[in-house]
Automatic annotation (TrEMBL):
GO molecular function, one term: heme binding
Keywords, sorted A to Z: Heme, Iron, Membrane, Metal-binding, Monooxygenase, Oxidoreductase, Transmembrane, Transmembrane helix
Matching Pfam families: p450 (PF00067)
Record family assignment: Belongs to the cytochrome P450 family.
Keyword Transmembrane helix: yes
TM regions (residue ranges): 6-27
Cofactors required: heme
Protein's name in the database: Cytochrome P450
Amino acid sequence: MDDSTIISSVRVTLLTILLAFWIYVYAQSRQKDESNKVFGEENGCQPIQKRLLFKWPLALTSSNGNTMFYMGKTFQVKLLGKVGYFTTDPRNLEAILLTRFEDFELGSRRQGLFPMIGEGIFTQDGHPWKHSREILRRQFVRIQYQDLKVFESPINDLLDGLMSSSGIVDLQPFFFRFTLATTTSLIFGEPFAGLDSTDHEIFSKNFDYCSLTSAMRLRLADWCWIYSPWKFKKSCQMVKRYATHYVNHAPKDKDENGEEAASERHPFILDLYKELQDPVVVHYLLVRHPVALERLRQEIRLYTQIPVNVRVASKTTFIPRGGGPDGLSPLLLTKGTGIGFSPYHMHRHKDLYGDDANEFRPERWEGPELKSIGWGFMPFHGGPRICLGKDFALTEASYGIVRILQCFPCLHLPPGHSTEPSGLVKQDLTLVVSSAEGCKVMLS
């Protein structure tokens, strides 16, 4: 057998293998498509009619900047060749977060957030997530924050800062420091234990940058790896170094003063050490702290702290609405399909909250109309992943606002500052939402 015959034989063999592989992949794909079709028919699913178009490369074709309201409650999006969906329908959110919870996972969110947060309830699925959440849940059950002691020192520092200010004051940075101080006080019994104001400012700047960059990475989904600036890596290290300070502080106090005395000052971290025996797993406790001011119930509706979220179908499933000409039929989601949802926009739906849905009108909660709002109101999300710190955040916000109004009965809008309608207020969107122009007031 000459060389040419051998080469020809090898080529035929390779082509045969490639053809067989292609036939196998094609057959598997057809079988999967047929299985998905049968599943969809059994559950009454219909194709979606509303599809969001894109202009090259990534610009949305929208209607006067109000894309979400223009497209309706559920629509299809296509980005970088992948098809996904977006919804603000309360019934769909209930399915994603509760009734069909096991059918969804975080997807690419883990890769997008991992450099900043690492392992934790915001980047885990399945058993690891259940284990982490149960540990944290037990800690929140034990916390006796209703006596308000944890807020006393931080709010006094905030009031001292406001009293020493003059003229126009931006409340937003004051509240950022207040919320961070209550967190460290909750864990260690004293706010900013062992850190001076310079360290705090360094942490704040690095945390803001990490949040902004992580938000950009989340928008890139599976392509998040292409956006990882050197400054981002350095800032993540600084944020983790800040958290490490607190993680290492608790066992050191235990060694120096005994477990009983240390447990009185910071039981939160020490309990986690007993459970995990690994300080690395504890780091995300402070790294996850949100930077924006927590609001009371009505403000929470208008300015939900986490305005947009995403899930990925871990298996072929469906949501109850979105399919068919009227969008009221079930919609099929095949395995790997992403679906975004926005409480921020849902809380502004006029069919849920009336024609004045964009207005700040707390009296709307006094009538019977919203008694059965259910999944139409979810500032802290819902289902098994509902925010563990909900009660703490509401207590913190209520206490802070009352104490400020006791010291400053009148808050005035600075001269020359116009009042924008709620729907037109500029927002900064990172991992959370906050006012792009701060919260400037005149105190008296």
